[in-house]
Amino acid sequence: MKISIFFATLLFAANSIHAQGGKNVDNFKINKQNVAVFFYDPLDSLFKHDNNFQSRPDKEKSDLLDKYLHEHPLYLFRLTNNKTKDITFLCIRGNPEKVSTKMFYKVEVIENEPADFNPNNGNYANNISQVIDKVNCGGTLFENMSLFDNEEGKKAVGNGIQLFGYNRRVQPYSEIKTSIENITRSLASL
Fold first, then answer.
1. 106 has which bridge partners?
2. Residue 123: which residues within 8 A CB-CB, separation 6 or more?
3. Which UniProt keywords apply (predicted)?
4. C-alpha angle 176-182-66 in degrees, rounded to nearest 5
5. Which helix (H) or strand (E) holds 184?
6. Would you write out the chain's pLDDT as a tens digit for each of its 190 residues?
7. Spatial CB neighbours of 140, under 8 Å, sequence gap ≥ 6
8. pTM above 0.90?
């Protein structure tokens, strides 16, 4: 995959940002709930907040991406109950305590936050009702990244590419969605 395509694609990413601070990538229904899914593109954030990111050596870029993913949200699933209109959020984010594994993500179940909740803003720790340590989300590249918005990028989903000097698999969103659907069903049975 050509890096020039990567940088050109990043320029268009800002156009699809929503109130949650992420890009709305999916909407679906499960268990009498409407689900809106927001993705927080880590590469877009790194380019936006680090003017020197592009000129850094590959190893440094890789380390910065890894650090960012361990400390920030990746996906936010907003579940709205069709009857009560109560909102619950499932936030997939990195777990800084998990190192030396690609499966370092966790799911935070968040309640009592407004519909436009952004997990990058403020402290919401008191509203986390549960943390789920097992989610089928791993690695550093994801289908919903702006890097994969073009035809060439779509071919890489589910496969590996070389980025920042390392071969990396691009995780399909469908794997993550299935995992969240299973978590949602298990929460409904509690």
1. 93
2. none
3. Signal
4. 30
5. helix 173-188
6. 444 444 444 434 433 445 467 999 999 999 899 999 999 999 999 999 999 999 999 999 999 999 999 999 999 999 999 999 999 999 999 999 888 888 899 999 999 999 999 999 878 999 999 999 989 899 899 999 999 999 999 999 999 899 999 999 999 999 999 999 999 999 876 5
7. 42, 65, 66, 69, 102, 168
8. no
